[in-house]
């Protein structure tokens, strides 16, 4: 079942042909589709050390080209400051027969993502995530500020989206409690100016092994944002004890922490109803995050 109304079909044979025609150095490698909860790209392994990412949603060619160029730059910045490995871009592919958009070749990182290997119980993961967020925050913004697209700026700009999520979640979630909580959190002030942020530190983008953080995926959104944005990781990835370790290690005050809860609420609300049938794992992750948020005595 397609996840998006404008979703593109990306067959393995098309990927193999495009790789072979455009990048002969990888053309002889076996091509395997990666089964994942990802919602933005179809991902294929090329041999053992390389991956190809094909955007899933139909968009204007120029927009995708610009988006991939920005992703390549952001991935390099993230890799330069992350304390754990992150993928690096290797090449940008062109549209071709069977696929209408540019696409990306990048390095492959070994490991299991936290949506598959649940490490929410791990205090060490809480510590590792705090080190990661602190390292990202310490990276220079070079004078840049939030671009105004997606999460990371003004919470109140998401009111229309949240209203739609509440409407579509009737019968799925405790909408009364969640709507009330959004009303309490949406006006919280920022803790400070923009800092560098991963922007999407949720379970499918975090690689773990034996309860430790071993890699971070999807670095194309690395950029300046609200300092509270990456606190989403505490709610999406950790149970109460490790979450408190994460918070204390970062030294979060009450308002900053609650604002991070607001970003986690905004993200999770969209997952449950949108992916209820097309991606049950992703929908379930949203439910789990919302359950943690509602159970929090703060």
Strand and helix map with partners:
Elements (H helix, E strand, L loop, with lengths): L11 H11 L1 H4 L3 E3 L7 E6 L3 E6 L5 H21 L7 E5 L9 E5 L4 E2 L9 H16 L20 H10 L6 H11 L9 E3 L8 E4 L2 E5 L6 E3 L6 H6 L2 H11 L3 H21 L5 H16 L3
Antiparallel strand pairs: 1-2, 2-3, 3-5, 4-5, 6-8, 7-10, 8-9
Helix pairs in contact: 4-8, 5-6, 5-9, 6-9, 9-10
Which features characterize this protein?
298 residues; Aminoglycoside 3'-phosphotransferase, Chain: A, domain 2; globular; 3-stranded antiparallel sheet; Phosphorylase Kinase, domain 1; 10 strands; 5-stranded antiparallel sheet; alpha+beta
TL;DR?
This protein has 298 residues and is α+β, with helices and mostly antiparallel strands. The chain has 10 helices and 10 strands. It folds into 2 domains: 96 residues, Phosphorylase Kinase, domain 1; 184 residues, Aminoglycoside 3'-phosphotransferase, Chain: A, domain 2 (Alpha-Beta Complex), CATH 3.90.1200.10.
- The rounded Rg comes to 19 Å
Q: In which order are the strands of the major sheet placed?
A: 1-2-3-5-4
Element string (H = helix, E = strand): HHEEEHEEEHHHEEEEHHHH
Give the strand content. Answer: 5-15%
In the CATH hierarchy, the architecture of the largest domain is: Alpha-Beta Complex
Please report the total strand number as a whole number.
Answer: 10
The largest β sheet comes out as: 5 strands, antiparallel
The number of helices is 10
> CATH topology of the largest domain, anyone?
Aminoglycoside 3'-phosphotransferase, Chain: A, domain 2
Mean pLDDT figure? 93
Structural class, by secondary structure, is: alpha+beta
Low-confidence stretches: none
Distance separating the two termini? 39 Å
